[in-house]
Queue: 2 jobs
Job 1
Amino acid sequence: MPHLHDAIQAAFLWYDMHLWAFQVGDRRYERKDEEVWMEPMFGPPVMEVNTKKMDFFVNSKVPPVIYTYDFGDDWVHRVEFVSKRPVEPNEPLPRFVSGQWATPPEDIGGPPMYGVFKEARQDENHPEHDWAKEAGYVDWAHDEIHADVVSEQFAKLQRQKTRRTSRWVMEG
């Protein structure tokens, strides 16, 4: 699952600066980092995120997979695998296939502030216009996915032979 997290971070052009988790049915998976880990007081125990491989998700009996990033901003995503195909020998993975819209910038304030961000970005008279212009990555526009930039982030993941335990940062 850490590789799936890395791919989501690359697709969103985020910097992997926050805690994250996957929820699969009643099971929660997180990185049990010694520096920040504390077992929850309530609910089922949290599983180590490294205990599940991608093959697990391809099974049609697996309940919906929920990915949560940045527990303060609380970005919650439903992850769906829509199709599978054989992997070609030496095919570079992960691979960005396509997308539809730009993604929210990192640390924008969660879904409620993303709405404000989009409004302020469009309206030069909006009181938060200057903030919105500075908060966006590249030349952010809602209808522009910046596939070239996202593809470059995936290329960086492809060049990593193994997943680093430290956070990877997008390089310029």
Job 2
Amino acid sequence: MNAITILLTTHTRLENAKTILETLRNQRLKPTLFLWDNSETDWDCGTVDWRIRSTPNTKVAGRWWMIAQAESDYVLSIDDDLCPTDDRMTAKIADFLDGNPDSLIGPEGVLLKKCGEHRYSQGTHLIAGTVRETTQVDVVKGRLVAFTRRLLRKAGIAHWRVAEPPSTDDLQVNTLFAKKVIPGLFYQSLRELPTGEESLWRYPDHFRLRDEFVTKAGL
């Protein structure tokens, strides 16, 4: 059994997905690879351990059910617009979670505004790959999140009906963790891949929905 399972969610960015999967296959600590495939095109994803092709497009909801089926010590969910550049990333993540087993980690997060109606949208947003030192945050963004698998079972996440619209599913996961961290291991170790109008953050109500969720959930 591999120490870490990585789940990639993709829809229309198939070239991005191919690039990410190939990069993950070349990690020194080999991950188990899951693919949640919302695409409408028959494409060659190469070798993965488990692939689910979903019709219609379920966006990001299915990834939490799928990743909850992992048997590894650690799990990681990644979007199809962010690619590791460090072939030791999986090993570094496993090492960090070994010492911080109750943490939710990722490269990108938010220090929420202390009060008001726009605590998320007007908070301090920390961009992937730019945080040098390990930093505790209020929210780890869902583009890449990693944590200890046993916490999935404890939370019953395999049985969730993840909130729609998809703009808040990662915030729902954040509510399970008291400690959210951007480790320094992600500094300058990721690159952005091409995106377009399909990006969830471009949806008209994206930030309003996230502001509302943060207030309701008491994050």
